[in-house]
Design a protein that fits this description.
By secondary structure, the protein is α/β, with parallel strands linked by helices. The chain is 23% helix and 38% strand. The chain has three helices and eight strands. It has helices at 7-18, 76-85, 120-127; strands at 2-3, 21-28, 33-39, 48-54, 69-73, 89-96, 103-108, 114-119. Strands 1-4-3-2 form a four-stranded mixed sheet, covered by helices on one side. The protein has a four-stranded mixed sheet with strand order 5-8-7-6. Helix 1 packs antiparallel against helix 2. The longest helix has 12 residues, at 7-18. It is globular and about 50 Å long.
Length: 128
């Protein structure tokens, strides 16, 4: 779960930049928050990213416990381009990591949360 400062902005970013879809959205006015579940398919068969907007909170301190979300992709170069076109900030241009040659790209979402995309085929080779 990631806390976000503007839920609609974040939903739009994850749809356009990451290719995720909005699976469901639920507002909880009694407790002053709204959640959006994002993913690549049905929640019962796929990993899901929960975005939480707490009413009136537009920014969070990232702390030092969070590193990144890692997501597999078939093409890190196309993924980086989609992120750029969606207003995301690339923090590591796509390409191979020195020493292991697995291709990755890294970015920040509009709230500053870091994600890394890892080439699916390269990653499977690393596991062998």
């Amino acid at each position: 779960m990631l806390r976000v400062g503007d839920l609609d902005r974040s939903i739009n970013f994850y749809e356009k930049a990451f290719g995720m879809e909005l699976l469901r959205k639920r507002d909880n006015p009694e407790y002053k928050y709204t959640i959006a579940m994002m993913g690549y398919g049905p929640e019962d068969k796929n990993a899901v990213l929960e975005l939480t907007y707490n009413y009136g909170v537009s920014e969070y301190d990232k702390g030092n416990g969070y590193a990144q979300i890692a997501i597999g992709t078939d093409d890190v170069y196309k993924t980086a381009e989609a992120i750029k076109l969606s207003g995301g900030k690339i923090t590591r241009e796509p390409g191979p990591l020195p020493g292991i040659n697995t291709k990755i790209t890294a970015c920040l979402d509009p709230d500053g949360w870091k994600s890394v995309f890892v080439d699916n085929i390269d990653f499977l080779k690393e596991l062998d």
